[in-house]
């Protein structure tokens, strides 16, 4: 897809409108403020009020121009010029009326210099202002008074001002020792005062600081960038990106320009093209990216009234129409806006890679040390490949032998990446530039070329660096052109809180995750790491192809699983698959969500659940492939989404279904698997729980049903035992426990209580009343009538000690509610009125859905509800079921971002299914009303 088609067409091209406010008008108003003996404070207060009025006028005009022109760079430059004018006018008023000096000494000279972002001559509405008061040698009383008066005026205006007062000598000395100060001075810009002093600073900075230190500066700036990316999220495709500090954001452009300015001594991006670092087209890309990111950032600041840099979901929805986006081609306005954003972020990454490669060529940057960039062969001069004379190795990079390499044979567009993967080589920037200019060679003939497709499948299924090479193909624009269906999802975000990445990034991460599963060695990968060793060799390749295709039809009106299966059937023959192989891939794509859905939202101890799933998979090999696919898919959604509980559920579903699909034979039958789980527990107990032994141990094991032993992981079983025994020793039938889960953003609350029909409803209500958002629940009952429920809630604090205090407060609320000391319904409504759930209801729109099914279980009616999650939803749903005289046999609670999917296995008070259509309709109506309610009732 041509990226330019996604740009917002400005209502009119940006033009130089002149200053936001005429500085002569500001000077006139301030000049009218007189200073008399004893009234300097009052005079300054009067000046500040005038400046506030002009600041409001300037920002109003800037916002109007921004909306009209859609040019954030022009807006930022205008705001910077306005700030310059304010400082000049204030300075003139101070030195003429507040602190006049009729016969200034040589020391009473001052230069006011803009540094940092302000030094670049661009300011967002909420940006800090960084000033340097440059002195000839030492501070004087006059200079100190002037600088202080300027700062107080700016602070009193409500501006955030960073400042330093230094001599030239001090600037040079501190710049040598501190990279932050060095960077600030690198962007220094004269505002007013002694120009000779400023020129001296610039001259000495270049001669005494920059000279001979380029490699160290480049390394330091790139290290800063990497640390910033680590803090804000390693991917540039996070669905709630940070416009300033995120990967592919403005700070990356700034870092790129700092390095270029330091290394090449240039002051504008145009000069980078003249120096040959960027081509003219790349320089235009730099300006386009900068303009777009500044536009988004300025709108963010104006919209929120503060220096907000994170594009949260609610702000995305408000910004999209404000920026002129409209729904089109199956994408709503906000998805088109974010698609454009991610394409820009990709371009920023490309520009950074080009500059780094140029610096390496000049030996101004150390060569990369990551495996991907380490060549196995290090020739001292360019050397060719036996596979093709059109390529050669140059400085550990693969490049073309001549400028006609791609035109001569378009298959070389794919072949260069296949060779890069095979020999673990990076691509030379010259080759990448030629490839980008040659993308028009990708036509139907190349797409259906057998050799090109064979090379592509070799990359996709490679055990070497498939994810990295595919990502480079994607960033070059080749992957979306070679596979147009993939091109439709490039930079496509899914407007929900569950998926952390764009669709294309998720697909590529799935490939990398499957490689991790295949390599093994990580116990957190669950059963998939064992099963992948047992599948047929050809099916291993089919798994890679399936993962590449499983979400390729997102954003279409048709269900993406069904549409994706059609795409798989169309692409399979092109990729060289047989008819049977194509059908296997299509089946996996169409059913890629089935195993996850059943494992997380069905009763796995119910025979009907297992028979239904077995009827879907039909063979053991398919089930193995589906489990591996499901594991990779969940892990690649984002950090913390995969956990031991989901791993255990998939394992249980697999082993429960295995004897059914194998005609009654099972390598490990259900009874034996329960025995194995119990034996594993017995082996662990002596070290973990030395007081639990002999008859006491066997009695404890007998307290849990078979489903518990199959569904719960060993570590949790040990903690449960410790919890139950401690409660028993204390004579408690009601107790709670808190567990913080590192790295998952989740806290677990385990509740032990006498079982009764409204137990889950009361627990859910107490959590909601305490401000906790439930994202999952595991519910078990012991043979002696106790409920052992683990409720997963979203973490509220980063610091463990703060989160532990919060969780204990919530647990205390649960205990009080179960003892009847809290009126849960009233507490839930009161808490909701204080919450931000209504904001979520404005941001996300999910149609409520209630499905009532009597075929999913032999004993229970299964009710599945889905809708917009909110605090108290689970309480309201379970309370509604209780009011309709339904017993909840088991419940399966899951939250996918902002979407709640809860499944209840119910019977009437007589233990029978809900059969009548009238009663089912009544239940459906009341549950739908709960889903539609914002919870304030």
TrEMBL record:
MF term (GO), any: phosphoric diester hydrolase activity
Top-rank lineage group of the source organism: Bacteria
PROSITE patterns for the chain: ACT, HD
EC number of this enzyme: 2.7.7.59, 3.1.4.-
Keyword Magnesium: yes
UniProt KW Transferase keyword: yes
Region (Disordered): 1-20
One of the GO biological process terms: regulation of nitrogen utilization
Cofactor names: Mg(2+)
Activity regulation description: Uridylyltransferase (UTase) activity is inhibited by glutamine, while glutamine activates uridylyl-removing (UR) activity.
ACT domain boundaries: 748-829, 862-937
CDD domains, A to Z: ACT_ACR-UUR-like_2, NT_GlnE_GlnD_like
Family, similarity comment: Belongs to the GlnD family.
Listed name of the protein: Bifunctional uridylyltransferase/uridylyl-removing enzyme
Lineage: Bacteria, Pseudomonadati, Pseudomonadota, Alphaproteobacteria, Hyphomicrobiales
Gene name of the record: glnD
């Amino acid at each position: 897809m041509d990226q330019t088609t996604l740009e917002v067409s400005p209502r009119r091209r940006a033009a130089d409108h002149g200053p936001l406010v005429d500085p002569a008008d500001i000077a006139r108003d301030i000049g009218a403020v007189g200073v008399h003996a004893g009234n300097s404070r009052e005079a300054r207060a009067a000046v500040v009020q005038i400046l506030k009025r002009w600041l409001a006028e300037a920002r109003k005009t800037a916002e109007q121009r921004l909306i009209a022109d859609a040019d954030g760079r022009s807006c930022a430059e205008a705001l910077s010029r306005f700030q310059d004018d304010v400082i000049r006018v204030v300075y003139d008023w101070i030195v003429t009326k507040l602190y006049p000096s009729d016969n200034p000494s040589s020391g009473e000279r001052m230069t006011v210099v803009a540094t940092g972002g302000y030094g670049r001559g661009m300011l967002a509405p909420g940006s800090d202002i960084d000033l340097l008061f440059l002195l000839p040698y030492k501070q004087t009383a006059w200079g100190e008074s002037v600088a202080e008066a300027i700062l107080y005026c700016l602070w009193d205006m409500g501006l955030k001002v960073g400042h330093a007062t230094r001599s030239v000598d001090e600037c040079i000395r501190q710049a040598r020792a501190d990279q932050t100060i060095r960077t600030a001075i690198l962007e220094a810009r004269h505002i007013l005062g002694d120009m000779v002093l400023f020129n001296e600073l610039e001259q000495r900075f270049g001669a005494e600081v920059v000279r001979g230190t380029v490699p160290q500066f480049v390394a330091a700036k790139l290290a800063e960038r990497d640390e910033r990316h680590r803090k804000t999220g390693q991917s540039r495709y996070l669905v709630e990106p940070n416009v300033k500090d995120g990967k592919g954001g403005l700070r990356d452009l700034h870092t790129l320009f700092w390095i270029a300015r330091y290394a090449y001594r240039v002051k504008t991006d145009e000069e980078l093209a003249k120096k040959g670092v960027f081509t003219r087209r790349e320089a235009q890309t730099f300006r386009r990216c900068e303009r777009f990111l500044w536009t988004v950032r300025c709108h963010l600041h104006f919209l929120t009234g503060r220096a907000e840099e994170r594009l949260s979901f609610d702000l995305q929805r408000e910004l999209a129409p404000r920026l002129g986006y409209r729904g089109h081609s199956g994408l709503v306005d906000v998805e088109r806006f974010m698609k454009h954003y991610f394409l820009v972020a990709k371009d920023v990454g490309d520009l950074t890679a080009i500059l780094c490669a140029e610096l390496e060529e000049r030996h101004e940057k150390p060569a990369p040390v990551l495996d991907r960039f380490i060549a196995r062969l290090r020739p001292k001069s360019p050397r060719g490949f036996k596979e093709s004379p059109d390529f050669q190795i140059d400085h550990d990079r693969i490049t073309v032998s001549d400028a006609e390499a791609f035109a001569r044979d378009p298959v070389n567009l794919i072949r260069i990446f296949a060779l890069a993967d095979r020999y673990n080589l990076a691509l030379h920037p010259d080759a990448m530039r030629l490839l980008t200019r040659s993308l028009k060679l990708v036509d139907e003939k190349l797409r259906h070329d057998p050799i090109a497709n064979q090379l592509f499948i070799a990359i996709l299924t490679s055990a070497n660096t498939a994810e990295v090479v595919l990502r480079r193909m994607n960033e070059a624009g080749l992957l979306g052109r070679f596979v147009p269906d993939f091109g439709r999802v490039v930079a496509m975000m899914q407007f929900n809180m569950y998926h952390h990445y764009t669709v294309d990034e998720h697909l590529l991460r799935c490939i990398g995750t499957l490689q991790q599963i295949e390599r093994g060695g990580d116990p957190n990968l669950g059963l998939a790491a064992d099963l992948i060793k047992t599948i047929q060799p050809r099916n291993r390749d089919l798994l890679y192809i399936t993962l590449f295709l499983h979400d390729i039809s997102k954003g279409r009106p048709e269900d993406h699983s069904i549409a994706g299966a059609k795409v798989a059937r169309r692409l399979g023959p092109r990729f060289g698959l047989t008819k049977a192989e194509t059908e296997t891939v299509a089946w996996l794509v169409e059913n890629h969500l089935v195993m996850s859905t059943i494992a997380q939202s069905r009763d796995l101890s119910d025979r009907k659940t297992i028979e239904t799933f077995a009827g879907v998979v039909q063979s053991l090999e398919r089930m193995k492939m589906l489990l591996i696919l499901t594991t990779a898919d969940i892990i690649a959604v984002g950090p913390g989404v995969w956990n031991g509980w989901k791993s255990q559920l998939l394992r249980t579903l697999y082993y429960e279904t295995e004897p059914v699909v194998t005609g009654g034979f099972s390598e490990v039958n259900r009874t034996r698997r329960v025995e194995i789980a119990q034996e594993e527990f017995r082996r662990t107990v002596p070290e973990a729980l030395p007081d639990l032994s002999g008859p006491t141990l066997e009695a404890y094991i007998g307290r849990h049903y078979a489903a518990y032993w199959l569904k719960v992981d060993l570590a949790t079983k040990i903690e449960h035992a410790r919890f139950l025994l401690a409660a028993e020793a204390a004579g408690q039938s009601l107790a709670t426990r808190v567990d913080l889960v590192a790295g998952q953003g989740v806290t677990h609350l385990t509740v032990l209580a006498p079982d009764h029909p409204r137990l889950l409803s009361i627990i859910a209500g107490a959590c909601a009343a305490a401000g906790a958002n439930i994202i999952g629940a595991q519910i078990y009952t012991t043979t002696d009538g106790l409920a052992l429920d683990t409720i997963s809630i979203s973490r509220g604090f980063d610091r463990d000690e703060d989160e532990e205090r919060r969780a204990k407060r919530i647990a205390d609320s649960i205990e009080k509610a179960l003892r009847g000391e809290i009126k849960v319904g009233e507490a839930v409504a009161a808490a909701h009125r204080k919450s931000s759930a209504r904001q979520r209801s404005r941001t996300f729109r999910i149609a409520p859905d209630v499905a009532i099914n009597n075929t999913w279980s032999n004993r229970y009616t299964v009710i599945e509800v889905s809708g917009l999650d909110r605090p108290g939803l689970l309480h309201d749903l379970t309370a509604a079921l209780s009011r309709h005289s339904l017993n909840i046999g088991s419940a399966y609670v899951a939250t996918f971002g902002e979407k709640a999917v809860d499944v209840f296995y119910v019977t009437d008070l007589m233990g029978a299914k809900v059969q009548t259509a009238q009663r089912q309709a009544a239940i459906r109506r009341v549950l739908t009303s709960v889903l539609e309610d914002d919870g304030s009732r």
